[in-house]
Design goal:
alpha/beta, about 240 residues
Length: about 240
Amino acid sequence: MTNVKIKIYSDGADIKDMRTVAKNEFVSGFTTNPSLMKKAGITDYQSFARKVVAEFPKYSISFEVFSNDEATMLQEAELLHLLGKNVYVKIPIITISGKSTAPLIQKLSNKGISLNITAITTMAQVKEALTAFAPETQNIISIFVGRIADAGNDPTEFVQQSVAAVKQHPEAELLWASTREVANVFQAQKLGVDIITVPPTIIAKLSQIGKSAQQVSMDTVLGFEKDIKASGLSIL
């Protein structure tokens, strides 16, 4: 991992997966979201969050609010903030009705709460979040690069513009979200992104970094051979 300088966070809500990926020295944080918590079968948010903070006190950890009205989001954010100094509260840049959360971001930032602004896909949203941060606070701008690409759009220019904008704000770091493959780690690093959040499956693949194309080919056919023998199938 000597070629990897970008910060790597693991994206998920399975405590067992978190323990496994934490064995990798290059992992320095965790991000979660409502969809990942549903997938992991979390039934008690507060209990889960407290357990994660207790087990990983030296890692950056992002927990997301659930509500969509400003008053409730504010209460949830304040509650999540109290979990620990290493906690970033995730706030979507818009609500389900399409309303901007910039006023809420400003209120929370003025209280000194570290924020991770999520679901960002446009430069207007990046700038809106950046201008809402209070000076001398610590925050993250999460741009959903993978989802932009999933829609058939080239995200490169958006990432470059986001990097340039965030560099003008010392109170923020830029995070590449919705990672799809190992190559994204190097793409994000080359473009100057500060952090990339990746699922445990991709973190496991990072061990293959440095393999030659020939070695990858050999590993592939060896994998086929192993599965052929295990399946008991034959053609003749």
